[in-house]
Amino acid sequence: MYDSITYYMYRHVVVAGTFDRLHRGHEAVLTRAFAEGELVTMGLTSDEYVQKFKISREARSSFAGQNSTPQILSFKERKQHLLDWLATHGFMERATIVALHDPFGPVVPQSPHDPAQRDIEAIIVSTDTRARAQEINRLRREAGWKPLTIIEVPMVAAEDIRPISSTRVRNKEIDRQGRLIMPDNLRPELKKPLGRVLVGDEIIRSIRSHLAKQGETLIITVGDVATKTLLDAGVTPSLAIIDGKVGRKPYSEALKCLTRSHLGKQGETFIKLQSGPGYISDEALEAIRGSFTKTKAMVIIVDGEEDLLALPVIAYAPVGARVYYGQPPLRPSTKARDFEGQARGGLVEVVVTSEKKQEAVALLGRFT
Description:
The chain has about 375 residues and is of the alpha/beta class. It folds into 2 domains: about 10-180, HUPs (Rossmann fold), CATH 3.40.50; about 190-365, no CATH class. The chain is about 35% helix and about 20% strand. The strands form 3 sheets. A 7-stranded mixed β-sheet has the order 6-14-13-7-8-12-11, with helices on both faces. The protein has a 5-stranded parallel β-sheet with strand order 3-2-1-4-5, with helices on both faces. It has a two-stranded antiparallel ribbon with strand order 9-10. The two termini are about 45 Å apart. GO terms for molecular function: GTP binding; kinase activity. It comes from Candidatus Gottesmanbacteria bacterium GW2011_GWA2_47_9. Pfam families: CTP_transf_like (PF01467), DUF359 (PF04019). This is Cytidyltransferase-like domain-containing protein. One of its GO terms (biological process) is coenzyme A biosynthetic process.
């Protein structure tokens, strides 16, 4: 049984929607509903409703699975996602899920003897569905019913500040948490090295030659192999980004080397955060940008995958900095000319220039 001692503003509230690809925006609305009401009726649009009201004529064939356009999940699937969410949060005994076959559901009587639920006191909506709630209240007044209190929940922003929506999740712009997802058509471009590929002894010769000529230079490594390679050569990066993996297999040598270095004695320079695979998190962007305002060297340990973080590093690093990241060998089927002849694996050395910064910013812009 739920805790009957807890006091709620309303005895009975309603929340409704399609709840396709249940995401963080949906969760904000649902959480508010259970904070306001002791009992919550959850209206879930039926498959028939989706066909009639949610899908354009051009997209209806995709709902039937006749092409590759992302489709709205079936009522059965969406209901199961809601049930899973309710079970996870301990709300099962307070919730009732009803199928919606029209835009107004159980809160507007369709006839004088309609069994619609008169005891519902409030409706929980997001900013973009407030107009529907106002229309519901107009119809309730016409029927002689008391209007519902409208409780509006602000839209939840994705990492690009635009609202999270099921459409954006279906189109693979963002995931259900609002994190930007790398578009499929961007993957081939990101395999192209952004600088010169160094292999074998070239790596150490290039680094030492540059240091001898330029003296103090900001050096950044992205990846465990790049970081360990430079540390083994006696070069401590100003910023090292690792994820404890090589080829998605566990790899601890880079972290061991960093811990043994003088950086290991500065605990505050080690930051742990989440990012990837396939997206760049806000906290990763903030940490990278902030690292270039500090005088101490910094290590970022990524829970996820650090592969994409070379882009914001190049975008935020000052002109003249050098960035090193791993470049896996291209598959034999890949045409070397597509990569300007740089088909070898090794470390990519990027000398940060205004042009390179613009290139990185342009690639980052394609995540939105």
